[in-house]
Specification:
Keywords: Membrane, Menaquinone biosynthesis, Transferase, Transmembrane, Transmembrane helix. By secondary structure, this protein is mainly α. The chain has helices at 6-17, 23-40, 45-73, 101-125, 131-143, 157-178, 183-203, 208-213, 219-223, 225-250, 262-275, 279-310. The radius of gyration is 19 Å and the shape is globular.
Length: 311
């Protein structure tokens, strides 16, 4: 690569990496570490650091794979200008001519390889049993969009995202910190899993026409926008219904705090039901869904830390 190309390449790399969406993995890692401290009294900043670096690299690799697959399938090229939003349409590095397909593929290979090496390091020197969780997350991130599996094209994308950023990331972090997995961690991971799946679901609405044309059969395409709003409501309901169960099982009433995000979620569902076909107005629901996810993560961390004082 010519020296004069490096500014273009790094601009494209960071647009592809999109650090602002790392909140999707930062929240469950932070909650997992907080739960390990609150319930087990165990916390290692060093191993949390390496866990986060490994997961962030997988996120970049997953973004890169998804970017070139969606470009080659035509999905990203079919998105009309008036349907492009900050929450949908991919990272736009190929369609906007910032990176080539070969450069995006190279980024995918290198970031996933580095993530794999970090995973091996954690398994060998910290917690051997995390191998299976790490391997599952690693493989799912690759086959999420890569042929011939293309999970997100076959209706398994929402489930994969919920499973990966919920149970796998949170319980994996907890395991690395505490050397075991608690039932409280599993319940908290389900809450975040439902919510992050909902973030993906609402972000699929603006891409509906392009996904339909490109045969990307996610659940918005399968159900249609109007009926998909019912699934949107159901995922919120499942997350909030799990909070009292977590509070009861843990004996910690502070785990009811995530319910304070309910009014935001209720408003988001109302917006989605009215504006599911009006992208400029629907964006409010996209933003509010992210807010619910962030607020729920923060309140779970508060509850986890408070568990330390209940013991």
């Amino acid at each position: 690569m010519l020296k004069k190309d490096w500014p273009r390449f790094w601009k494209g790399f960071w647009q592809l990496a999109d650090p602002k969406i790392w909140i999707a993995s930062t929240v469950p890692m932070a909650v997992g570490a907080a739960l390990a401290y609150g319930i087990e009294g165990k916390f290692s900043l060093y191993w949390l650091f390496w866990s986060m670096i490994g997961v962030y690299l997988i996120e970049i690799g997953k973004n890169a794979i998804n970017e070139f697959v969606d470009y080659e399938s035509g999905v990203d090229r079919y998105v009309a200008p008036d349907k492009r939003t900050p929450f949908s349409g991919g990272k736009k590095v190929i369609v906007d001519g910032i990176l080539s397909v070969s450069e995006v593929k190279a980024i995918a290979v290198w970031t996933m390889a580095l993530a794999g090496l970090i995973g091996v390091y954690i398994v060998l020197y910290r917690e051997p049993s995390v191998l299976w969780i790490g391997a599952a997350g690693f493989i799912l991130s690759i086959i999420y969009s890569l042929p011939p599996f293309k999970l997100c094209y076959r209706g398994f994308g929402e489930i994969t995202v919920g499973l990966t950023f919920g149970p796998l990331v949170l319980c994996g972090t907890y395991l690395v910190q505490a050397h075991r997995i608690s039932f409280e961690a599993v319940l908290a991971s389900l809450i975040l899993g439902f919510l992050i799946a909902n973030v993906l679901l609402i972000n699929e609405f603006p891409d509906y026409e392009a996904d339909l044309r490109g045969n990307k059969r996610n659940w918005v395409v399968r159900l249609g926008k109007k009926r998909a709003t019912l699934l949107y409501f159901t995922l919120f309901a499942a997350a909030f219904a799990t909070c009292p169960v977590l509070a009861y099982i843990s004996g910690n009433p502070v785990f009811l705090l995530p319910l304070c995000a309910y009014p935001i979620a209720k408003n988001a569902v109302k917006i989605a039901k009215i504006y599911y076909n009006d992208i400029p107005n629907l964006i409010q629901a996209n933003a509010k869904t992210v807010q619910v996810y962030q607020l729920t993560g923060l309140t779970l961390i508060i509850g986890a830390i408070f568990s330390k004082f209940l013991q």
